[in-house]
Every structure is written in structure tokens, then in C-alpha cells.
Amino acid sequence: MIRNLTHLKPGEQGIVSGFSDEELSVKLMEMGCLPGVTVRYNFSAPLGDPICISVSGYELSLRLEEAATVHIVQ
């Protein structure tokens, strides 16, 4: 089973292993979501979308559809 950022719970961490959307992956990599980098799921908005993650020393907000394209390993 492929895990992605949406499978994490607040406080959990994962390591970026790849992407499922080539076009969006360029944008995400420019923002620091590089393969091999640790990401931490911080919290989600009150209705669950967007989510806030910590990556490369800063916080990043992603829509669930964007977060679902980031594959992780724990």
C-alpha cells in the first residue's frame, strides 16, 4: 500500500519517497518537499482541508488533493 501525507495524523512524521503527479511535484519540490526529506504533519484546518506540514525548516499549507500526491515512508 502506498502511503501519502493524508495518511499521517497530527504529530506524525514521514520521509518523502516520491510523487504521483509530475506537474505538481515540480511545485512541491521548489517548496522543499524533496525525496528523502522528513515532513511532519502539524494540524489541519477545522474542516480538515487544508493541512499544515513542517518541511525544510518552515511550515507549508497543502490542500488534501495536493497532499495525496506526496508519497511517504515512515
Account of the 3D structure:
- This protein is α+β, with helices and mostly antiparallel strands and 74 residues long.
- The protein has a single domain (3-73), classed as SH3 type barrels (Roll).
- The chain has helices at residues 22-30, 64-67, and strands at 3-4, 13-19, 38-44, 51-55, 58-62, 70-73.
- It has a 6-stranded antiparallel β-sheet.
- The longest helix is centred in the middle third of the chain and has 9 residues, at 22-30.
- It is globular, with a radius of gyration of 11 Å.
- The chain starts with a strand and ends with a strand.
Helix and strand arrangement:
Blueprint: E1 3-4, E2 13-19, H1 22-30, E3 38-44, E4 51-55, E5 58-62, H2 64-67, E6 70-73
Antiparallel strand pairs: 1-6, 2-3, 2-6, 3-4, 4-5
